[in-house]
Amino acid sequence: MSNLKESLQKDIEAEQPALQNKVAADPWRLHYHQQPPTGWLNDPNGVHQKDGLYHLYYQYSPLDATGGLKYWGHKTSRDLVHFKEEDIFLYPDQDFDKDGVYSGSAFEKEGLIHFFYTGNVKHLGDHDYITSGREQNTVHMTSSDGFNIDRREVVIDSMEYPDGFTQHIRDPKILEKNGLFYMVMGGRTSDDRGAILLYESDNLSKWQYKGNLLENREELGYMWECPDFFELNGQEILLMSPQGVEQKGFEFENVYQSGYLMGKTDWNALQFKPAEDFVELDRGFDFYAPQTFLDEQNRRILWGWMGLPDTEPEYYNPTVERGWQHAMTLPRELTIEKGKLKQRPLPEYQKLRNEETKLQYNTHDSEISLTETSLTYELKIEVGQKEKSVTIQLSQDMTLQYDGQIFTLNLGKSGYGRKTRSIELSRLEQIHVFVDTSSVEIFLNDGAYVLTTRMYPTSQTRQIRFSGEADLNISKWDLNKTQ
Ligand code: FRU
């Protein structure tokens, strides 16, 4: 074990127990979402399934709820619902990653898992850390079980990146095509444009730069983080998290975005040709840096970070004072149907249901209500054909409203600065909601749109109220706690 790893481990062992007590006392801890045991969590990393076991690694600062030095935390699961917290998988303990083991991914080949991640290094001195003072090394490591690391080495040193880029190049993800391996990384060019760098290899350890996968797109900002590139139902999807996109009506309202381009790749020219504009994956307040993987049932599953960087002073998360911050979204299955990307909650989560309540609301009713018996529940509402307006009052001061072909999520005080997000929607067919103690995920029209957000309610007695000019078929289930 390296000396640095030993001393980092000692610090965690010394300080974590006190923090654990503080965190355990927080009623806003989530019941069925994945969250850090203490401290901070951001991007999902290295997600994969091997020999039946799902592995979810994540950007983790165990002792600092506001971020800081990044490790890879590790959770495993047999069913994607119940998870076990494992030992920290990766420490920032090498010269090439001493200021953070940043985001990366996993790729399985012949029974061996190849991880690629970004080793972040910051040099002392008078630097802007964009054009000087930073190293972002691409590191390769292998593991046969997802727990033990066999080998760890730099495969692309920060000095080897092409000209025309700042020092922000990171977050490798692998794709195999025509017998070769391709790596995509997100970058910021010297003239402040986002870019996807494409590398090629025939052995996973020697990589050659092949240019930018996508032509410059000015409207997509100055930096693209966390690219993911995969085939889905005969199309290609390039997923990424751009920074610096301007708001357009109800779109791109958050400080940073996450979304996708759908299209086709010319594999001779190594150019991805988008067929349409960039689409946001989630229209809520808390969603960033998603990553996908194929599971053993061949499902394309996506996890997102249920959070966002750099949101203050607009809003903040009150759990910081309670020793922790952020969580993962529920895992979602992606499909393309009739040319549109759909995101659906995994059916596995149905096993958490208990106490089913069914209710009917008719256009001519004035209001009906349900008492919330649990802090965690699922609500599925089928909306009749002639809907004009719908208002649903949820958890204390949160409302979902559909009127004038606009769907709006409204948060009151429990939003801690988060207020409203809207989507233009010509028809509202279905609303599917997952509420955890301090989070909500709203799937509209069978996964055509999703809004994810954190909220922090305080009142104990709560009612769910339905009103409006529409016929609603309502099912509600309390959801069991998994942790
Ligand atoms: C995205 C990101 C990545 C980086 C990681 C560091 O949230 O900024 O680009 O690798 O977080 O934690």
Average of pLDDT: 96
Bound molecules: beta-D-fructofuranose
* Number of beta strands: 35
The structural class is mainly beta
The CATH topology of the largest domain turns out to be Tachylectin-2, Chain A
- How many domains, in number, for the residues? 2
Helical fraction equals under 10%
Strand content: over 45%
Number of helices: 1
Structure, explained:
This protein has two domains: 342 residues, Tachylectin-2, Chain A, CATH 2.115.10; 126 residues, Sandwich (Jelly Rolls). Helix content is 5%, strand content 50%. The chain contains one helix and 35 strands. The chain has a six-stranded antiparallel beta sheet with strand order 24-35-26-31-32-33, with no helix packed on it. It binds beta-D-fructofuranose.
In short:
The chain has 483 residues and is mostly beta strands. The protein has one helix spanning 3-24; strands at residues 39-50, 53-61, 71-77, 83-85, 101-109, 112-122, 134-143, 151-156, 165-177, 180-189, 194-201, 208-212, 223-232, 235-243, 259-266, 271-274, 279-280, 288-294, 300-306, 324-325, 327-328, 332-337, 340-345, 353-361, 368-371, 377-383, 389-394, 398-403, 406-411, 420-424, 430-436, 439-444, 449-454, 463-467, 472-479.
